[in-house]
Design goal:
With about 625 residues, this protein is mainly beta. It has 2 domains: about 500 residues, Beta Barrel (Porin), CATH 2.40.160; about 130 residues, no CATH class. It has an 18-stranded antiparallel beta barrel. Strands 10-9-17 form a 3-stranded antiparallel sheet, with no helix packed on it. Helix 2 crosses helix 4. The radius of gyration is 26 Å and the shape is globular. The protein starts with a helix and ends in a 5-residue tail after the last strand. About 45% of the residues are buried. The C terminus is likely disordered.
Length: about 625
Amino acid sequence: MIKRIGLGVMLLLAGSSGEAGARGVTPYLPLNLDREIERQVERVLILADKPVMRRPIPAAVVLDALPKACEVDAALCERVRRFLANYMHVSGVAFASYEVAAASGSGDRTVMPNQHGAGADSHYRAAAAGYLQLSDYLLLGVGGVADEGRATATGSVLSAGFDFAQLDLGYRDHWWSPLTDGAMLISTEAPTMPSITLSNYRPLTRLGLEYELFVARMSHSNDIELTNGTLTRGYPKFGGLHLSFEPVSGWALGAQRIIVWGGGAAGGQSFKDILKAFFNPSRAQSTGFGNNVHVIGKQEGGVSSRFIFPGRTPFAVYFEYAGNDTVQGHAYLLGKPDLSAGIHFPRVGPFDLTFEASQWEPTWYVHHRSSVETGYGDGITNDRLNIGHWFGDQRLFGDAVGGRSNMLRIGFEPPFGGLLEAEYRMLVNDSYYSAIPYRHENLGSLSYSHPWREYAVGVEVDAGRDVFGGSFTRVAGFLRYGRHDQQGPAGRVVPATAHDHAFLERGSPRGRRPPPGVGAPGSRRRARSRRRSRPLTLQRARPRLPLPLRFAAGAQCLPRRFPLLPQHPRLRLVSRRRPAVAQRAAGLGPRGELSLRSQDLPAADTVDRTAGRLPARRLL
């Protein structure tokens, strides 16, 4: 059935000419693979008043958020922009990371939270992602994550479509929660599953509607229990739907539902059977739909919200309320719930502060058969690792105990450069729900990374005690590629180099190179206009055939073509006389000057960095 769904969606997208001015596909940023850049991206989106309800984050969303974030923190904006430059080529390596570690102690078999199934006893970990842009609307990603004893093709995805409907086929991560430390329905706690995903990254309608629909294949299980008590083996299916909208700027509301079905002799469900169970979960889990409808295994649902408070000290608060059952036969009531909440201050003096907490009732991620439901002896897992929140792997396998957890994370950028981060987690499995004498789990982590050329070099120390009383210590050193922030003393951002501007020349339309002195550092010559210039205004161009990314000014000081990141709304400079009011509305000064932030322009010798303005005719 998964193949039929994927083929149908692919044919639908292939036969669609797209909306007028629709942008192409976008790559995704790493998720729990590159700590330094992920923290910076989260800060940028808060400063830009953009609430995040699901991950991985599309690169185009971050690119759109940079102008607003730059008004608050230009240095942070520059570091993120440098990382995004990895995605601005026809092909290349987006990021790469390699880590070596040594661990000791009786608790070294602890599963590290949200690390794609990696354990504390793993002596190495490697991750990388590359891409090939086949066209504006077709992108091939090649990637993988490997640790001791396991390797997964995470990031190997074929993407096709548009900004309003992007189809991803392959090993794509999913994270459905505004929280950063745990997601109840699906996260990166387990290895990535192969899936078919349809989603959008451009909000639809005035309400800012976003959606994500996917179907994945779980790992092979020998313990699938049919309704009559017999066992079968096979690959269960895992699917879900996420919807969110943003009624006002900075406040988002979301709802999500996942469903597990099939596997071996428990399969055979039609698309109609799944829809019935999805829209009527109380009946699917209580009385069923009769003998003519194949039964469904398990369902979980939740609602979430994220609100960003702007101001001199902006911060974000977010919540998730999820349940793995219904109450009193009502589909809209969530039973056996979990409540999670968090708060994130991206700028508290020199610190970045995050605190998150969760509390859940029993039965999460464990599912036995009933007369109308298939049972899964391995639980809601992939490769016997929990698909949802990381607490599911911090207990005896199969014990559906309730409990609570807390996480505190503090980041600091010292004056000599780099990023210092401390993180503390606490988890309690409530003994009231279990006969197993669990201990309080405490996990601490301290890491420091420093930029070196195009890399980040660092060390991380993890220590803690698990729920069985075993203690461990782990020391790791890592090297990460991805054009991390190149800082000098006192956190000063090093100016862009000629390498940073090389893609500008390759992106010039029709093979034309930028005029001398424009977009190339080290030159003192100016581009001069040979004909008389009239006042210039910005005017929206009429929709044309799909083109690569094109920026508003149409200027050769700015890149006209980013092969990978999708195109912004097409604007071009036209030589027409317009009233002064229209000029000001278009961002032009009284003498035809185009207002631009100096940090947005690559050529230091062509910009008056004191005034931050550039005559528009120099852009032609």
